[in-house]
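Title: Request for sanity check on IclR family transcriptional regulator prediction

Description:
We are preparing a figure and want to confirm that the structure record we downloaded matches what your pipeline produces today. Could someone re-run it with the sequence below and paste the raw structure tokens into this thread? We only need the token string, no images.
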Amino acid sequence: MSDTRSAHLVGKISAVLRALSATHATGTTTTDLAREAGLPRPTAHRLLSSLADEGFVDRDRQTGSWFLGPELYLLGQTAGTRYDVTHHARESVHRLAAKTGESAFFSALRGEETVCLLREDGDFPIRSFVLYEGARFPLGVVSAGLVLLAFQSDTDVDDYLGRTDLTTRWGPSHSPEEVRARIDRTRRHGYAVNPGLVVEGSWGMAAAVFDHNGKPAWALTLTGVESRFRPDRQPELGALLLHEAHALTRRLTTQR
């Protein structure tokens, strides 16, 4: 097999696994996964069958739904010794949920997406379920994706927005002009606000956590219903997010 064909195959496998990881605990059908991965259904089915033979995916015999497999868990356990930072972030997520009553999250930047790694719900009974562990969103979408894009260099922001169409899936509120306006506000305040742009009435706020090189690499997020994120409360929530984000940045850059 040529290098080009090999790279193409690896890309297809990666798309299948990423799409499968976004299905959370519910699993997904071959048809739905093929659509999310941007592959023909027969291709997706062949890849899934081959991955299942190696233990990288698993299929529920009763429902036919596909899930990530046990081999990935074992590989993840090994990789976690080098890459896992959730044990550092768990206390911050807990404090944010306890202090605010909202749902708190920790997400990582992976390529040009954010991946949610941790969730803890506060005691307020009405919650938003836009974010969940394993959820992926492109940069510029949801508050975590906005804050991680906002604190990249102007050159990187211009490059990303110049070649990325967010409007087809996420609507006109995610045009380059709209995203740039939110980036400007995020840079001024230090935290990002998503005013129900993904799901109406479901708001979010996020602050960036930085790596050893001073680059945005993770995000802490609070989400909830619109009435809990009114303008008079946003500075309070933003201050809590920034405090935890700064503390977590120090912890990650000095202990890892």
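Thanks, this matches our download. The mean pLDDT is 91.
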